[in-house]
Amino acid sequence: MKILEEISKYLQSGDDTKVRELTQTAVEVKIPPGEILDDGLIAGMNIIGIRFKAHEIFLPDVLLAARAMYAGMDVLKPLFIQGQMPTLGKVVIGTVQGDLHDIGKNLVAIMLKGAGFEVIDLGHDVPSEKFVETACLQKAGYIGLSSLLTTTMPAMKEVIRLLKEKQPDSAIRVIVGGAPITKEYATEIGADAYGFDAMNAVDVFKSFLSE
């Protein structure tokens, strides 16, 4: 549908004003909100993700596209009040305790939202207990942990220990990432998966959907 293609196109160029206007127009001509979300906003962010992964665009471009996506979602949110916003799953994400870095974590959060996940972003320097408490309280399916310092890496292991202590049979998946993290370290601490960059992290989260 042409208007949905236009939403996707203007989202990719980071034009939040145009995305908001076109999303409103799409609502007024009775296009189902879920279709606007999937075939307009998410379709545009998927292309942004592919181009970012291929180094065709850079972080500022992703942030502009994300702002445009949020502008469109603001128009759609009221329409989902009666039901629930369609989502691929709920993710609690944050940078572990003692670590103030959040650019990478923010990018993963943006990409996850763009892919259709509901994201609860706890920010940076997050106490280990807060990850577990929030995930259990919100009935999240995933916890995403970021660490950019070797000194804060052990906090990831602590989150996993607390989760197993609180919910021994928990189905919550823990995905870890960050500059010093390796696949081997993820395995060593008992994480369910490792993401080496933002787009790979989204692929990892999506990989659990088919289970």
**Number of distinct beta strands:** 5
Biggest sheet, strands in spatial order?
2-1-3-4-5
Number of helical segments with 4 or more residues = 9
Any idea what the CATH architecture of the largest domain is? 3-Layer(aba) Sandwich
What percentage of residues falls in helices of 4 or more residues?
A: 40-55%
Q: What string, H for helix and E for strand, traces the elements in order? A: HHHHEHEHEHEHEH
Strand % is 5-15%
Distance between the termini: 32 Å
CATH fold type of the largest domain: Rossmann fold
Structural class: alpha/beta
Radius of gyration using CA atoms only:
18 Å
Instruction: List unreliable stretches of 5+ residues.
Output: none
Average pLDDT works out at 93
What is the C-level CATH assignment of the largest domain? Alpha Beta
> So what's the overall shape?
globular
Biggest sheet architecture: 5 strands, parallel
| The CATH H-level homologous superfamily of the largest domain | Cobalamin-binding domain
Number of domains: 2
Layout of helices and strands, plus pairs?
Elements: H1 2-12, H2 16-28, H3 33-53, H4 59-76, E1 90-95, H5 103-115, E2 118-121, H6 128-137, E3 142-146, H7 154-166, E4 173-177, H8 183-189, E5 193-195, H9 198-207
Parallel strand pairs: 1-2, 1-3, 3-4, 4-5
Helix pairs in contact: 1-2, 1-3, 2-4, 3-4, 4-5, 5-9, 6-7
